[in-house]
């Protein structure tokens, strides 16, 4: 497999062709961040988008999910089992993320007809200096309770909306919050 990008996943002893473009995978990521979807619905979205053939036998669905997650994780396995702290949001960070990826790639990646998810993530992993890396560093430090450098404190004060991850609520939760805000004035 060295040097080759997967275009199919083996499930139940059968190869299933998959969609590999980063835009489709980002759509899956958005579904997983959607508070309106329950876990079953999120997995259904993932399987529907990723696998071109939707005729996966019911008994093979757990393996199809496992293989899909392996693909989304770029072939890495999470032995830790501890969920990572959320320090980025694909949708919220889009405006600062793509310029950083474009800088690494040396081109506008959104203009490319097709870019394999693993290639996209390779560019992502090589992001160094810039607004996105600064925001990410500040979020990581804050999530771990570490002290920010003076320049980071100033950057944070001036760019709170960029640095703070927005909490997403279901429509029901948001309606309750709005009702409480209305009552409290």
From TrEMBL:
UniProt xrefs under InterPro entries: Phage_A500_Gp15
Source species, domain of life: Bacteria
Name by which UniProt lists this protein: Bacteriophage Gp15 protein
Species assigned in the record: Enterocloster lavalensis
